[in-house]
Design brief:
heterodimer; A: 220 residues; mainly alpha; 9 helices; B: 182 residues; alpha/beta; Rossmann fold; globular
Chain lengths: 220, 182
């Protein structure tokens, strides 16, 4: 347990001290969301209709942007070798790194989302659903993203490659996440939220195994 | 044991095999007669590996770095200060690692050996970038470890002042290929 706690603490410390990366992801998220009203015009009805989808799509892209730092640093400085030799199984290392990644990137997006939803004139009834949807859906983004981040370790342009790999995996999260916020107006958000939770719960045990297998390949 | 040989002769690959970071395609790796694959985590708990790369983050402090690597071995941080002192890093323990020179980074990587106990040390070019004082501290640490019954495998292409022990010279690729067949 000490090892897991130590790794989580280190990941948070590193992300905090190298704050640029968190700021970049958050700034990107806010900027993408703010650009849409400029593109589609100021009609409140249109903005209200597309708001949840735009916020979800921006969250997906912001998550992709921050995936690079998940394993690349430890791979290039030899830290991954030592983690493979530690008392933690690599699957555990992946899980802790994903948890820290979510805390430092996913959680701030959740906190920011209601304010951005107001800018889109989103129905008040839809805002809690949007926040809850992001809260239970963004862990899946970190977990699925970790697979792509591990598969592209050592690649010449890992950012582009991991985007191509991971965005198709993110589609169900986007569909059910945006769908939940839309459906909340008519009171039918539960099925969407349950499916979103199912995606995160399924990724929780499966993604660390897939990611750890990819990391073992990268260590060879 | 000291592994010597020209560049590309397979010293680092052999060390990575011994560390189980690479797995032999054929043959087996044994520890006291038992295949290490039977209980990989127990074998890994018995070894320290210091490779070419130091696993140091510029944003972390010297003490934080060593404490973290001690924790990943499931051991507390009680020996961290002693390890820093052994390698002459006590005075810069609160420095961010981005301030360290190449030699100081090497000392910090080697301090992991002292921060947590392990009977087998696998060291890849441990003297690289070390000054005379650093090398003397390394030799003393290795001697102390061997006196306590520990085993050390050092890969180097530079002479290192170790007394006793055996030398295994890896000549060319053909020789290295037979050596990985445990």
């Amino acid at each position: 347990m000490l090892a897991y706690f130590g790794l989580f603490r280190r990941e948070i410390l590193l992300a905090w001290r190298q704050g640029g990366e968190i700021g970049l992801a958050l700034g990107f998220f806010v900027l993408v969301v703010l650009l849409f009203p400029l593109g589609v015009g100021p009609e409140a009805e249109i903005l209200s209709r597309i708001g949840a989808g735009v916020i979800w799509a921006a969250a997906l892209l912001a998550a992709v942007l921050s995936l690079d730092r998940l394993f690349a640093g430890d791979h290039s400085d030899g830290g991954l070798d030592l983690m493979a030799l530690s008392v933690m199984p690599l699957e555990g290392v992946v899980l802790v790194k994903c948890a820290a990644h979510w805390v430092m990137t996913g959680l701030p997006l959740v906190v920011l989302s209601p304010f951005l939803a107001l800018l889109f004139n989103l129905d008040i009834a839809a805002i809690p659903t949007l926040v809850v949807g992001l809260l239970i859906g963004t862990p899946a983004l970190s977990l699925l993203g970790a697979i792509a981040a591990a598969l592209t370790l050592g690649a010449r342009r890992p950012g582009v490659l991991s985007s191509l790999l991971v965005l198709p995996l993110y589609l169900p999260v986007l569909i059910f996440g945006a769908g939940a916020a839309e459906a909340s107006v008519s009171g039918g958000a539960w099925p969407h939220l349950l499916l979103l939770a199912a995606l995160s719960l399924a990724a929780l045990p499966l993604a660390p195994f897939a990611t750890a297998a990819a990391l073992r390949q990268a260590l060879d | 044991m000291v592994l010597t040989g020209a560049n590309g002769s397979g010293k680092s690959s052999l060390l990575r095999l011994l560390a189980t970071l690479l797995m032999p395609v054929t043959g087996r790796l044994l520890w006291n007669g038992a295949p290490v694959r039977d209980d990989l985590s127990a074998y890994r708990a018995r070894l320290h590996y210091v490779g070419h790369l130091e696993a140091i983050k510029p944003a972390l402090r010297v003490r934080e770095t060593l404490a973290f690597w001690a924790q990943t071995r499931g051991i507390g941080t009680a020996s961290v200060d002693r390890a820093l002192a052994v390698f002459g890093l006590a005075q810069i323990a609160d420095w961010p690692c981005r301030w360290l020179s190449a030699g100081q980074r090497r000392r910090l990587a080697l301090a992991r050996l002292v921060a947590t106990p392990a009977p087998l040390w696998l060291l890849d070019e441990p003297g690289a970038a070390l000054d005379a004082d650093g090398e003397a501290r390394l030799v003393a640490a290795i001697a102390g470890h061997r006196d306590r019954g520990g085993r050390v495998v050092v890969a180097t292409h530079q002479p290192i002042a170790l007394s006793g022990g055996s030398e295994l010279r890896l000549g060319d690729f053909a020789v290295a290929e037979t050596l990985v067949d445990f």
